[in-house]
Design a protein that fits this description.
The chain has about 70 residues and is mostly helical. About 70% of the residues lie in helices and about 0% in strands. It is built from 4 helices and no strands. It is globular. The chain starts with a helix and ends in a 6-residue tail after the last helix.
């Protein structure tokens, strides 16, 4: 899970948002979706593993990616 941790640090550093927060604020949700999209594209981790790294479930990861990146295929 080291790749996910490094990716999470990168997204947090670039967006200055706490993506592990339970907040539904737009900026945090968008940063979380960016993390999910990058994690899915650049690592071999499943939706479940990505969700667990955020304290969320796999369905949340799929939902965030589809809503922020509607052209993406989950």
């Amino acid at each position: 899970m080291k790749k996910l941790e490094e990716l999470m640090e990168y997204v947090v550093r670039e967006t200055t948002e706490d993506i592990t927060s339970q907040s539904r604020e737009q900026a945090i949700s968008d940063a979380r979706a960016i993390y999910c999209k990058l994690a899915r594209e650049h690592t071999g981790y499943s939706f479940k593993a990505i969700g667990e790294s955020l304290g969320k479930n796999h369905a949340t990861v799929i939902h965030e990616v589809k809503n922020v990146f509607p052209q993406a295929v989950a």
